[in-house]
Each structure stands twice: as structure tokens, then as C-alpha cells.
What we know:
Layout: E1 52-55, H1 57-60, H2 66-78, H3 81-84, E2 88-90, H4 118-127, E3 131-137, H5 154-164, E4 168-172, H6 181-195, E5 200-203, E6 221-223, H7 232-242, E7 254-256, H8 269-281, E8 286-288, H9 297-303, H10 306-312, E9 321-324, E10 329-335, E11 341-347, E12 353-358, H11 359-362, E13 370-374, E14 379-383, E15 386-391, E16 396-402, E17 414-419, E18 438-446, E19 452-460, E20 466-469, E21 477-478, E22 483-491, E23 499-510, E24 517-527, E25 534-537, E26 545-547, E27 554-555, E28 570-572, E29 575-577, E30 580-584, E31 587-592, E32 597-606, E33 619-626, E34 629-633, E35 637-638, E36 644-649, E37 655-662, E38 671-681
Parallel strand pairs: 1-2, 1-8, 2-3, 3-4, 4-5, 5-6, 6-7
Antiparallel strand pairs: 9-10, 10-11, 11-16, 12-15, 13-14, 13-16, 17-18, 18-22, 19-21, 19-23, 20-22, 23-24, 25-38, 26-31, 27-30, 28-29, 30-38, 31-37, 32-36, 32-38, 33-34, 33-35, 33-37
Amino acid sequence: MRAMPRPLTVLLGLALLTAPLTVPAQAGAPAEPARTTAAPRLPDGLAATPPMGFNNWNSTGCAIDEKMIRDTADLFVSTGLKDAGYEYVNVDDCWAAEKRDPLTGRLTHHPTRFPGGIKALADYVHSKGLKFGIYTSAGTLTCAKTMPGSLDHEEIDARTFADWGVDYLKYDNCNNQGRPALERYTAMRDALRATGRPIVYSLCEWGENKPWEWGADVGHLWRTTGDINDSWQSVVNLFKLNAPLAEHAGPGRWNDPDMLEVGNGGMTDTEYRSHFSLWSVMAAPLLIGTDLRKATSRTLEILSNREVIAVDQDPLGRQARVVRSADGHWVLAKPLAGGDIAVALFNESEQTTTIRTTAAEIGLPQRSGYVVRDLWKGQNAHTVGTVSATLPAHATALYRVSADGDWREEPPAVELGLHLPSAAQGVPGNITPAGRSLTVKVTTTNQGRTPLLSPRLRLTAPEGWRLKSLGDNDTDVLTTGKTLTARWRLTPPAATPPGTAPLATGLTFRTSRHGRVERTADEILTVPRPVPAGVSDLGQLTWAWASNGYGPVERDMSNGGAKAGDGRTLTVNGVTYAKGLGTHAPVQLVYYLGGRCTGFATDVGVDDERDPREPDQGTVTAEIWADGTKRADSGLRTWRDSAVPLTADLRGAQYLRLVGTIGPDTNRYDRIDWAAPVLTCAS
């Protein structure tokens, strides 16, 4: 956590470290990364698997009290989360009084948020068979600046935490007075060890000084990234920063791409499943960041998937390696104890796609067949070697693949895909305007060794939608590697209201050893709201789809930070605007025009909301697209530039896309304002 919201790309070359001490590798073992301190690795056996638990910050910030922590402990037990492996109930910033106790110099509880005191709260958590965690910063103040930090108070604070029964410490990096990270984090390590109490030590250093290179000697886990927020772009950015660091993770030393956002409402269930899958395959800590008192059954279903959790908690302690990632089609492989491999197939792109790998590519020995278990569907199958999935945008399939199981006992694996045509470049295929027909293609491929007998494909349309088959969708036998294809014409009625609608496909077949087998796949369609006739303020209209680089897109204010409504007046180079859209690169906004609009005009620039201490940050390009044609381009803009007026001819276009891209630096402070945006459509 930081004192102020900051964009997600971090700079990794700011190390303020001493010269590294090289530790010789054991014979036959890969070389250990260079260490930066001669102190021994923490010899306590803690965090043998990535810590699991809860932290309140993502859902409440400083709006925290002891009742929420007690309620969370109760819910861990009543919902089964404790039995699923969640253990730590952690309090983040704002738990302490503004000043230390004048007599003892100790931190003390906030008198209104935690009137019963921290020890009593820890005792309550312990009474539920759980563990208690707390927060402070390696600076003079914490990030929220509501309570003292622990810089130069490490010994007394560590003793205080131990006396209270603290089991986990998150140690942040704010207000650190420019002192070296290694010095500050090592001081608290030594203070914690001196207490004699086993306390898991989390280095929330944001990855600024490459803690993966020295953190194993200092703590049990270390942040590799800036803060997460409840947006898809944030999850992808942090995943990409953490994924290359697999060699540094292992039992007692974990890469931490920040806490979970599952259930906080800023993403779809598909995206939350991907978030949970990717964190699990990366052996990341699993700290729930949603208010469990408000959690839906779908949220609890994701967080409680024990087979996915088992991948994260596997005792071998390996983080998945990236097998490949071309075009946003990711394959990650994580070796598991006992010889199995966990495989994540992740579709980062905006279109449905098929991603494939093989047993050989993920590191399994040659066999005549393999057992593949789908960890989200809970289904077993066998394959001759191909592991694949057809995935909607932003979806992830997570499999456990075994070379040693009896594959003959399982039905053949099938690649079942539902394919939607894209209306235009950059427009997601699941956007389906009312009254307009589209052709839906469904395919299935036999990846097993035994044939599928009497395979049949079906498509189930949303209620009231018209569905017409465009040909036969069956065959008598589907042998290894062969594909069956079926097509339907799907038409939502012209009166279909804007919103989402489910589209489901299914496959049934038999084999010589099995009875009837069924497999399913689905897609969520979006019926967009058409733009109104006449002249409109685009900032007040409903987009069909949006992807923003940091936090939500804001109306009539700058992008601000991770939370909705936290921006400021739209301001570009000192000029303010009452109306417009506040975004952050990389960003895409899609509006459905239906061929009825003629033009669009806006003033575009980099918002003045930024950190003046970083004068080289904040460079973007803004583009306006009509279907697949770029109609206007701002060129490279910096925070020093005035807003530039852009106009675009939209005649005949079905879709308007506003696109903001990152400049040659990072995406820090790349807040793009689309000021005074005017859309003109036929009356």
C-alpha cells in the first residue's frame, strides 16, 4: 500500500544496496541468485507454503474496525474458508492511535476503531483456530499517514507485536526518509527474531529494489510490484511483472504480486477466476481482499476451490514458468510434488482463442496417454499429449496433468469451443447489438486416444432469442485429432434490453468404455445500449465495453486512483474542463453507433494530476477509431502539452473506439482526459 494511488508499472533499477555476496551453489544445483547480505536465511520454517488469509485494505482502506476483523474470523469458520486453508486474519493501516504512548513509547490501538485493544482482538482470532496479522511501515509514518511508522522503533514495535500475539507482519515502504531498503527491512527482521515469537514477515517494498534478489535472507515474502486495484488491467500488469521471477520463489521465500481483488466488483467472474488461477499457479500468497460480510456465493465458490488452492499450496513450492506468451496467449507450467504438472492456459486477448500445449512442452515424460483434470470443472479426461482449451476473452483454464495415472479409465479430452465473430478491429466478439444476426460457430476436437461415438453439438440461446441451425452438427465417429464443426445463426430481438445474456454450448458422446459423456462451455454476451440521436455529451453515455489502465473510467473528473469517484477536476496544462472522461493508459472505450452517427470531437491531453517529483513521467497517444479505421491521432503528448483538439468522421461506422496508449516511458501518471467530448448522430 502506498500513501497516494500510483499507477502500476514499477521501476526496477533503483537499488540502494551494498555489493552482492555470492553464495556458491551446491554441486549439480542451479546457481543461487546473488545475495546482498551475509545474514543467514530465516531459520524458522515459517511460510513453507504461500500464506493464505485475509487483509482488509483492498475493500475498506482506513474504514476498518475491530468488529469487521471479528466478523471475518467468524466467517472463515462458518463459510469453510478455514478448512480450505485460509489461516491469517490481517489488519492493514489505520489501526493505531495517531501518536505513540507518551510513557512507554509503544504503538497503541486507535481508540474508536479498536476500543478493545489489539491483544484482545488477536486473542479472539486465535480462539477460532486462526492467526492474526498486523501492519506498519519502514518509515516515520505509515502510508495513510494516520499512525506512526516503525523506522528506528523496530525493537520496541517488534516486542509489542509479540506481546500482543501477532503472527504476521506486513511491513510497508512509505515515508522511508530515503534510507536504503536493505537496512530498514533487515532491522525489523532482527527485531522480530529477537522476540522469539514465530512471525511471518512480509516485505511490502513494491519491488523497487529487486527484493527477490535479497529478500530470502530477510523475510518470508516480498512484494514484486506496485499496488493492485480492482481492474483487469491491474491484474494483467502485476501478473506480467511477477511471472518472470519464478527462479526466486520457494518454500519460505515467496514472490508476492499483492493481495486478491476477487469479489470487489470491478471485474467479471471470468476475470476473477483468471486472477485466482494465475496467482495460484505463480505460488503467490492468497490474501482475500474483499469484505466477506458482503461476499456472494460466486465469490466464495472461486475463493474456496480446493483443487486450485492445492496448486498454490503444493509442498514442492515451485512457481510456474512461462512456457510461451505470444499474442497474449499464455502457457504456464508448474511442477507439483509427485510428478504432476499444473498447466494454466490464459487468454489475455479480447477475442475467443484456442491455446494449446503438449505434455512434452510442459516437461512430462513420454507416455502413450496422460490424465488431465480440469480444476475448475472438476472433470477428468485423457489425452495423447495435447492439452488445450478454447477460451473466451480474459479466461483461464487450469489443468493438472499426470503421466502416471491410468488414462484408459478416463474419457477422451475434447477441445470444445464457442466462436463469435468480431464486428470490427478491437471490438470484443461478445458484443451483440439487438436486432442484428450473427453466425456462431461451435467446434470440438478429440484430443484422446479412443474415438468419440455419436458426438452431438448443441447451442442454447438466451430466452427469446432466435436460433437457426446452418447445417448438420453430428457424425458417427470422431477419431483422434479430428474436429466436428457446427454453425447457427443467432438473432436477439430488436426489443432486447441492454445488458448481458448467457450463451451455452454442449457436447455429448459415448466411448467403448464409457456411457454418455457431456462437456459444456459458455460465453456471456453483451447487448450494448445504442447512442441517442442528436448531439450528446459522450461522457454521459453508456459504453459497450471498457478497459482502463488504472482504476475505473471516470465521468467529469480525472482518473484519480483505484477507487471510483476519487479523481479531480479535469485539468490539462492548467486549463480546466467541466465535462469529459478521465482515463488511464492503456485504455479502450467502445460505443455502439449502429451506423447512425456522423462525427465526434474532443480535446485530449495528459491530466495535471501527477507527482511533480517525477517530471519525466506521463506520455501518451490518443486515437479515435471508427470500426477498423483510425480517424484521428493526437501524436505523442506529455504533461507539459496543452490539450489538442481531435475530430473524427464517423459516417457509416458501427462502433466508435477511443484508444489511449503508453508513451516511451512507463505508464506512470498516463492519465488521459477526453475533455468536452461531443458525439453527433442523426435525429
